[in-house]
Amino acid sequence: MSTRVMLVHMRIPPRMTRIGAAGALVSALLLGGTAVAATPAATAHPAAVHTATVHIKSVGSVCYSKLPSQAHDTLDLIDKGGPFPYPKDGTVFDNREGVLPSQSKGYYHEYTVVTPGSPDRGARRIVAGEKQQEDYYTADHYATFNLVDFGC
To answer: How many helices (H) and strands (E) does the chain have?
Structure first.
């Protein structure tokens, strides 16, 4: 299953201007997607509409067999405890993006998945939780995550 980003475009009617941009943002968070809030300026001038974009992210899953071979190599190194090719491998992942399930600081650690042809670490990572086989793969530097399913 792939990671889904839900985007819903909403236009808040002028009578809702009393709730303002903050209310529109709350509505977007509850419904998921993009909030378009009508402000007093928009009521006077309908063309003047302010937009706040909210991206609701979720964690999907990916079969181990569908991962690139370099991700298999990284998972093998994690199981062995290293050695890792990059000094930042094994460092704490803070989950600042808030996509992974909320846990205490130090629960998640990140590891580089080598990207052939990349002059640096690239965007691919494995983020491992403390539980056995709680490994998340990201190919886009933490924008989306897929929990690795080792059973398929």
So the answer is: 3, 11
Entry pTM: 0.63
45, 110, 130, 134: which one is catalytic?
110
141 among known catalytic residues: yes
Residue-by-residue pLDDT tens, the chain, 152 positions: 443 343 333 333 333 333 344 444 433 343 444 444 444 444 455 555 444 444 445 689 999 999 999 999 999 999 999 999 999 999 999 999 899 999 999 999 999 999 999 999 999 999 999 999 999 999 999 999 999 999 99
User: How is residue 68 annotated by DSSP?
Assistant: -
Q: Spell 84-112 as b/e; 16+ CB within 10 A means b.
A: eeeeebbeebebeeebbeeeeeebbbbbb
User: In degrees rounded to 5, what are phi and psi of residue 9?
Assistant: -95, 125
- 45, 50, 55, 141: the active-site residue: 141
